[in-house]
Amino acid sequence: MNTRRFFGRALKELLASRSIDEITVHEIVVHSGLSKSSFYNHFTDKYDLVTWMHLEDVCSLPFKMLEEEKSYREILDVLLQAHKDNRLLSVNALRSRDYNSLKGYLYKLTLDFNLRYYELHGADLDDWETRELIAIQSKGCTACVIRWIKRECDTPVERIADIIFRSAPAELRACLR
User: 24: which DSSP letter?
Assistant: First the structure.
């Protein structure tokens, strides 16, 4: 296991009983059995660790699936299930009031993914209106997923995926498969 994973595992274990805002870097370091200098060689703070964990465990999935030419709906199902499987981390990260919060990060990843997906499936990204429609859809998808995570994933994955899938603007539905 690499150093980053040791810190990630330590944080996940600590999150089982407390929120991210209540946990200190010192506690993560002690729990991991590694050094503080090692922590700061890899992360700027505990929120940077959370972001890395989310990227590794959840947010990298849709980009990998894009390369495998999976459908938008298949990607949604897998991504939402990964959020649900990692909901303890997600819920705590989203409750944070830190400026490095996961909210902005999730929107950026959603927008980047949607732009890439639609471009690969024929959308004209040089068209200003198309880019705006994708940005608006990405904002709405992100808000929906964040609300769902904060409710501790209380709605079935398939239902959330269906709502997000149906939210695609009419002008872009031809790109969805």
Answer: -
Measured CA distances, 158 to 7, 76, 152 (Å): 32, 9, 15
pLDDT in tens, the chain (177 residues): 699 999 999 999 998 888 888 999 999 999 999 999 999 999 999 988 987 888 788 878 898 898 898 999 999 999 999 989 888 777 777 766 665 567 788 888 899 999 999 999 999 999 999 999 999 999 999 999 999 998 889 999 999 999 999 999 999 999 987
CATH number for the domain whose boundaries are 44-175: 1.10.357.10
Q: How far is the C-alpha of 9 from the C-alpha of 20, rounded, in Å?
A: 14
How does 133-171 read in b/e, with b if 16+ C-beta sit within 10 Å? bbeebbeebbeebbebbeeebeeebeebbeebbeebeee
Single-letter amino acid, residue 34: L
SS3 letters across 92-147: HHHHCCCCCCHHHHHHHHHHHHHHHHHHHCCCCCCCHHHHHHHHHHHHHHHHHHHH
Q: How far apart are CA 49 and CA 153, in angstroms?
A: 22
Please give the span between the terminal C-alpha atoms of the chain, in angstroms, as a whole number.
37
Count CB-CB contacts under 10 A for residue 173: 10
